[in-house]
Amino acid sequence: VQLQASGGGLVQPGGSLRLACTVSAGTPSDYALAWFRQAPGNEREFVAALRWGGGRYAYADSVKGRFTISRDNAKNTVYLQMNRLNPEDTSVYYCAARIRWTTNYRSTSEYDYWGQGTQVTVSS
């Protein structure tokens, strides 16, 4: 399984970006797909996750109400729509996949596959 992340860039505070993560292999319904982020000097932190077959969505408190995770089954792609961005959202964003949904979705150690990361910079 390979994950290809894209969509990062430079955006002004208050702006929006949409990240995409394409999964190379088929995505059984119980897959967990997640976004994490890592700023310089910080640990990688959970942002959002979903169960590919539906029914499970989760967000970090810091992004709830601003970010939305979604999927396109036909394109084997998971998205992260990021609105009302602020400078604290500046990070490298990574997508991750796990073969089976877990209630421990916030932990990086739970994920089997990782994308290469895409830089998001929020600055005026």
Sequence-ordered SSE layout with sheet pairings:
Layout: E1 3-6, E2 9-11, E3 17-23, E4 32-38, E5 45-51, E6 57-59, E7 67-72, E8 77-82, E9 91-98, E10 113-114, E11 118-122
Describe this structure in words.
This protein is mostly beta strands and 124 residues long. 0% of the residues lie in helices and 47% in strands. The chain is built from no helices and eleven strands. The chain has strands at 3-6, 9-11, 17-23, 32-38, 45-51, 57-59, 67-72, 77-82, 91-98, 113-114, 118-122. The strands form two sheets. Strands 2, 4, 5, 6, 9, 10 and 11 form a seven-stranded mixed β-sheet that branches. A four-stranded antiparallel β-sheet has the order 1-3-8-7, with no helix packed on it. It is globular. The relative contact order is 0.32. The model has no long low-confidence stretch (mean pLDDT 94).
| Mean residue pLDDT | 94
Helix/strand-derived category reads mainly beta
Report the β-strand fraction as a percent range: over 45%
- The global form is globular
State the separation between the terminal residues, measured CA to CA.
37 Å
Low-confidence stretches: none
Q: What is the helix tally?
A: 0
Question: What kind of sheet is the major sheet?
Answer: 7 strands, mixed
Helix content: under 10%
Strands, count: 11
Gyration radius, in Å: 13 Å
What's the SSE pattern?
A: EEEEEEEEEEE
Record keyword descriptors for this entry.
124 residues; seven-stranded mixed beta sheet; globular
